[in-house]
Amino acid sequence: MTVVVSLGGSFLFEHPEKISELNRLIKKVNEQFIVVCGGGMVAREYINFASGLDLDSEFLHKVGIELTRVNAMIIAKKLGGGFYNKDPRRIELMSKVTVTGGYKPGWTTDTCAAYAAVASKSDILFNLSKEKNVYDKDPSEHRNAKPIKSMLFSDLYRLTKGSRKPGMNFIFDPLAGKICEKNEITVVVTDDPLDISNYLNKKEVDGTIIKGLNW
């Protein structure tokens, strides 16, 4: 079985110590892994810089993609994996761990992870985020935001309405959600790599589990 991990850029820069936890976990289990890296604050800074020069939106997307690939190269080195920089819909597994970043303007790295899950016939995608759960409202703006332990993809879409721009941060991209829903891929949103092991061993997870209505 292949396990897909969408490694949020914010997670990378706010929880670098947890990359070592992920590395130890990967070495302990038998599954192969695909890890897709986001851009994080560095990508957003470059996008803001390029935007200030009045450069077009497609170019801004390309800047963000290149920064995700830099992150992917670093994480591939840390995890002892192979770096892949082509179409995630045709991803080629490289030994135990394959690490990639963004690919196409307009696609978030969550979307790339969803396509990689389809291509590798995975039925599980972990979204490692700076937040422990999906919340009913933005916890950075609302102190009374409540965590959601399990939800449907339709609930996710209601929480993520609105337009998308280069560098925008979602708890999990709704387009990626639709790909996962269509292909019956469960999504776990968490800030703890241990939830990967817990889920694989059929134990309770602390994060949020997202599924389709009739699964």
Task: Give an overview in words.
With 215 residues, the chain is α/β, with parallel strands linked by helices. It has a single domain (2-211), classed as 3-Layer(aba) Sandwich (Carbamate kinase). The chain has eight helices and ten strands. The strands form two sheets. The protein has an eight-stranded mixed β-sheet with strand order 3-4-2-1-5-9-10-8, with helices on both faces. Strands 6-7 form a two-stranded antiparallel ribbon. Helix 3 packs antiparallel against helix 4 and helix 5 packs parallel to helix 7. The longest helix has 23 residues, at 57-79. It is globular and about 50 Å long.
Features of the shown structure:
215 residues; alpha/beta; Carbamate kinase; two-stranded antiparallel ribbon; 19% strand
